[in-house]
Amino acid sequence: MSSTLKIVDSLENRVSKMLHRLEVLEQKNQKLNQELADSKGQTERLHEEISQWEEKFNSLKIANSMLGSDNNKKEAKLKINTLIRQIDHCIAQLAE
Q1: Which of 6, 36, 74, 83 is paired with 92 by a 20 to 30 Å CA distance?
Q2: Rg value, the chain, Cα
Q3: Tens digits of per-residue pLDDT, 9-64?
Q4: What keywords were assigned to this record (predicted)?
Q5: How many independent structural domains does the chain possess?
Q6: Which residue has the higher pLDDT, 90 or 77?
Q7: Can you tell me the distance from the alpha carbon of 22 to that of 60, in angstroms, rounded to the nearest whole number?
Q8: In angstroms, rounded to a whole number, what is the distance separating the alpha carbons of residues 27 and 31?
Q9: How many helices (H) and strands (E) does the chain have?
């Protein structure tokens, strides 16, 4: 009987250790999932910020070319022509 008790005690200890390991791993997994979610949120914010900076940069390029700079005159002319076409389209729709 004593050998059976030893085996049962040994199994209980092993099961207890395994349950403890499981709990530790679940906590670690939860922490890692939270870090991942935080990183995804930060990445999304950074993408939005990059987009805003690109928009500002493009606006500055157009403004600079309109001020007489030779660098982006063609781009500015194309943008102006696009705006004129859009205005013409709106006027045509209003006239109908």
Answers
A1: 74
A2: 33
A3: 899 999 999 999 999 999 999 999 999 999 999 999 999 999 999 999 988 877 77
A4: Coiled coil
A5: 1
A6: 90
A7: 56
A8: 6
A9: 2, 0
